[in-house]
Write a structure and sequence with these properties.
It catalyses: Ni(2+)(out) + ATP + H2O = Ni(2+)(in) + ADP + phosphate + H(+). Helices cover 31% and strands 20% of the residues. It is built from 14 helices and 14 strands. It is globular and about 80 Å long. The structure holds iron/sulfur cluster. Residues 309-310, 348, 350-351, 354, 356-358, 361, 365, 380-382 line the site of iron/sulfur cluster (SF4).
Length: 405
């Protein structure tokens, strides 16, 4: 029998990251958009956590919120981001304003500069489109070497957030203009960049390091972006749709590379994708997101073998199964809501698309233990009761806009 989850698991030694009740809002001219709505999850050591959902479900904004990269008009308005870092815990141990729990520090309570300084050595990100992430006028090798250089300088002065984050700075640009041939990166950083290119499988890395982004194929450039992300030897790599822009064979190579890197370095990866095939192939645990909420989470087996939330069932029903080919795939009818606060109401956000919506669903469902595994949870009343057609909502209950009445 399932039961409502009221107590979150305490910080465990194997939790690299523990996110609790994270909320991110965008304050737009149309109104407040609740892009992330009380999201909680853990990232453990040496695991790949998949975050899956349709476009607009809040996957990427969640990841950007964790690493404090939300820009105006957005803002993280609530929640906790516990990161395990004994040095940081010791540094802020006497500060009553900073949340400390053993070796974990609540990053939402440390100064912004410290959060910024963790990008690189703690968290790195790779994005869907590497071409838009590289400067087209600087060689690939030099751009990776710059990332190495920033981290190297930061390590030589670990307490300086400025050296980590501002990296280059106005003075260096002025000196560059005055001293012909001066380079920000030294030979050691360039050698490291070449080494990183070699580690991610770029052939002839020394020669390729001298080339510009447009001389790389999409797959090669994605490898180069991974090399750049590894420059700071991060604890956690956030891979945001890393293979979506690539063709199928290159996708497989990049996924294999990520798996190898994770195994070799023992680091953790958060893999954001809309592709359940990628999740099945790569992930240890899964969070399914819809309308800014985690609606189901658990181990890969929990979610794939016993999907409980109708949205998860819909996602699984809309991918081809080679073992059980069906004549037609089952799409999920309707669209992800716009997430405007004034339109969301206080109900299950999936109710306007859910084939099993009932009167109970007009109240916001809490997160329930599904009861078939230690960490399988779902935000759906079907964990507690069976679907009863007598309680079904009429199909026109939400009108065309899907708004709560
Ligand atoms: S709570 Fe109700 S509407 Fe929401 S997913 Fe479950 S059955 Fe469907």
């Amino acid at each position: 029998m399932s039961r409502e989850t009221t107590v979150q698991r305490t910080v465990g030694d194997t939790d690299l990251l523990r996110v609790r009740n994270l909320k991110t809002r965008f304050f737009t001219e149309e109104g407040q958009v609740n892009a992330v709505e009380g999201v909680s999850f853990d990232v453990r050591d040496n695991e790949i956590l998949g975050i899956v959902g349709e476009s607009g479900s809040g996957k990427s904004v969640t990841a950007l919120s964790v690493i404090d990269l939300i820009e105006s008009p957005g803002r993280v308005t609530d929640g906790e981001v516990w990161y395990r870092n004994p040095d940081l815990a010791a540094e802020f141990g006497d500060d009553p304003d900073v949340g400390i729990d053993g070796d974990h520090v609540d990053l939402r309570t440390v100064p912004k500069g410290v959060r910024r300084a963790l990008r690189g050595p703690a968290f790195s990100t790779i994005f869907q489109d590497p071409m838009s992430s590289f400067n087209p006028s600087i060689t690939v090798g030099e751009q990776i070497a710059e990332a190495v250089e920033v981290q190297r300088r930061a390590r030589s002065n670990p307490r300086s957030t400025r050296s980590r984050t501002q990296g280059y700075g106005l003075v260096n640009y002025i000196v560059d203009g005055l001293v012909p041939g001066r380079s920000y990166v030294d030979e050691e950083s360039m050698d490291r960049a070449i080494d990183l290119l070699s580690q991610v499988g770029i052939p002839d890395p020394a020669e390729r390091a001298e080339e510009y982004p447009h001389q790389f194929s999409g797959g090669m450039l994605q490898r180069a972006m991974i090399a750049q992300a590894l420059a700071g030897e991060p604890d956690l790599l956030i891979a945001d749709e890393p293979t979506t822009a690539l063709d199928v064979t290159i996708q497989a190579q990049i996924l294999e590379l990520l798996r190898e890197i994770q195994d070799d370095r023992g680091m953790s990866i958060v893999l954001i994708t809309h592709d359940l095939g990628v999740v099945a192939r790569m992930c240890d645990r899964v969070c399914v997101m819809y309308a800014g909420e985690v609606v189901e989470r658990g181990s890969l087996a929990d979610v794939f073998d016993n999907p409980t939330h109708p949205y998860t069932q819909g996602l699984l029903g809309s991918i081809p199964d080679l073992q059980d080919p069906r004549p037609r795939l089952q799409p999920i009818e309707g669209n992800v809501p716009g997430l405007l606060d004034s339109e969301m109401g206080d109900r299950c956000y999936f109710a306007d698309r859910c084939p099993k919506a009932m009167v109970d669903c007009l109240e916001k469902p809490p997160e329930f233990d599904v009861g078939d595994g230690p960490e399988h949870r779902t935000r759906c009343v079907l964990a507690e009761r069976n679907y009863d057609p007598a309680d079904a909502l009429s199909s026109d209950r939400f009108g065309d806009g899907g708004e709560s009445e």
